[in-house]
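Marked as duplicate of an earlier ticket. Keeping the data here for the record.
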Amino acid sequence: MRNTHPIAYVLILPFYVFLFFFILVPIGMNIFLSFTNYDLIQWEYVGWKNYRYLFQDSHFHLSLRNTSIYAFFTVGFSMVLGLGAALLLKGNPPGIKVFRVSFYIPYIASMVAVSMIWLWIYDPLDGIANKILNLFGVPSKQWLYDSRYALSCIIVMSVWKVLGYNMIVFLTGLQAIPTYLYEAATIDGATSFQKFLKITLPMLQPITFFLFVTGVINSFKVFEQVAILTAGGPSNATTTVVHQIYNRAFNEFSMGYAASMSITLLLLIAIITLVNYRYGNQGADLEIG
């Protein structure tokens, strides 16, 4: 084996310094704080008390439920609609560049800016959502102030924001599928739907796994849109795990308990990542040109 040049270690040193001081050390401190009662002034070691209370905390259970619902629908709809948009743009229709940019702009815009736009859209008095309903004779809704609609409103906004990214990734995968596979299927008499099921979906399997896993991870970290649009309300109908962590840490100053929540969230995300390692390479052995 050829010896590695010493300069290589110097070049990668900044990454490991960053990894140690800004990722590993904070995680270690968070694990320690999760076993304490810390309020920014003094701390007391309490062992597993925070974790025992965590499993009895109805607010945490509700936040985990809301986060799971948010992740399920946001990831599901954004992937299905993203694939649909990619299929429509695959054939290079007129104005395809305009469509690509239009779909992608919401993704690169900041979450704060996007949330402020949708805050106006959902405004009960001057919002465009109610104005559209009024055109069809439907009474106005208190979108963000009604527990029946609030979480759905956040899901719709999040799907709209991430749709363009999923579309671009799926479109890249579609364009990499060899055309001779479709030509051979056509000669064999396969219909368009059969070609989609037997060729398109299997060839997109690695990309689908990637988007699914990263989408779920990002969904479990949802916070900005919740904080801006609803602040977790009404009646905690839209509170999420990260929102609960924020409230416990910076509103109640229960840093130790917030740390136990964050460690629990870290474990959930770690499990999702392990699933990615286990299943993420399925379909990678398929030839994609």
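See parent ticket for discussion. Strands lie at 36-38, 43-45.
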